Amino acid sequence: MVAAGVFLAGITPPPAHAVEPPAQTVSVSQSQAPGRMEIRALAHAYPDRITETAFRDGEWALRIEDQWFYWADGRLLPEHQRFNSANFTGLRFYNYTTGPLVFRTVDPQTAERLRERNRGGGVTPPPRYNGFLDALYGIAVRSDGYQLIVTTRLFGLQTQVHRMIVEPLQSVEREVLAIAAQNAEVRAFLDELHQVSGFVWRNIAGTASRSYHSYGIAVDLIPRSYQRRFGYWRWALDSGVEDWWDLPLEQRWSVPQSVIDSFERNGFIWGGKWLSFDPIHFEYRPEVLILARWRDAGLL
Q: What CATH number has the domain bearing residue 188?
């Protein structure tokens, strides 16, 4: 269990304009080892939590308090688990693209795999090793949240989130309200919001991996009405749309682009860009956006 009391009160989100990776002198073999840039992005995103990165025993690793986590094929595992990566699902470092949604074309092999999943015949993924996220966010069991989950308001609606994301959410709110003053579409979107759902202790649907809502670093913007559009991929499947990944954008509930842009500027990725689309969902993943900026700048 992570000691929540050691969590620093002043958590500074990474600057949205940061592009250049932090200086780091490495050998050729170290620079070619997997996970180097992801480890660096994590350290850049959470400087108050990740106190050190290093190339240890032939692998990139990072330290949170007194515990080292190794890349381990993207699983971020402690010393005693680092060679058991096949037993776990890796963290998702999405190849995320900021700006307008680019509709993804699904190849025939992926389409068949998704249809098999629809039929309930897909392979259940192994669980994610939650220990890294437990350490990063300071929440290993539900009771840890009592010290780190706070009540706040977003767009006039009360919600509970990790205190790590209060300041980024406040920045989003300031930006979006300023836009709404000049933009009727955004005003209408805000007027239609019914609930902002944050901290909920649960697993990701259909998996044994803990949801990011369990850490209070994700929020769902829930409208009064989805206007006869789908706000989640599984709703489309349950409605008889077998090839839900090909569902036209006009049949998916969405968020105004200027609102999405604001969330992205402040460290949140949007679930509407996932293949398994979840457009009500925003998740604080500044490391993913840092990697996207480095990629756009040709640094990856």
A: 3.30.1380
